[in-house]
Amino acid sequence: MSRRSSPFDDLAELFDKLTSQLETTARSWETEIDDRSRFDLSIGGSATSLDLTDENDEFVVTVDVPGYEKDDLEIRLAGETLSISGERERTEERGLREETYIRQERELQSFSRQIRLPEPVETEDVYATVNNGILTIRLPKVEVVGESHAIDIE
């Protein structure tokens, strides 16, 4: 007597294929996340974008900070971790009271980003500028002295 096939056999095979494909995709996502997370230490999403470039003798960090003034931003360097944060408050328009607004969306905004630098930098020579809503931080690398010297054996 021949065994009759069940429609559930086909569903089980389909689920096995889907599970295999999802596992493969998840592994590729983990690799991408691991590569990014080596440098980005920020927690949660951020409202600002950041670029880190290696320009041979220095690292350059460029951050979009539209609407932030120099005094709204704070930059700290602790070892190889660069922390950038900003906070700005809504400014009251002169002569406008809250009940005169038809729509009011501009409020307190803040962001915080932390990135790990790939190599040590000269902390005394780091400088930053803000121009047209773009924060640029230049971090000169520690110079490696290529000279060799003799070591005495005692």
From TrEMBL:
<dbReference type="InterPro" id="IPR031107">
    <property type="entry name" value="Small_HSP"/>
</dbReference>
<feature type="domain" description="SHSP">
    <location>
        <begin position="41"/>
        <end position="154"/>
    </location>
</feature>
<dbReference type="InterPro" id="IPR008978">
    <property type="entry name" value="HSP20-like_chaperone"/>
</dbReference>
<comment type="similarity">
    <text>Belongs to the small heat shock protein (HSP20) family.</text>
</comment>
<dbReference type="InterPro" id="IPR002068">
    <property type="entry name" value="A-crystallin/Hsp20_dom"/>
</dbReference>
<protein>
    <submittedName>
        <fullName>Hsp20/alpha crystallin family protein</fullName>
    </submittedName>
</protein>
<dbReference type="Pfam" id="PF00011">
    <property type="entry name" value="HSP20"/>
</dbReference>
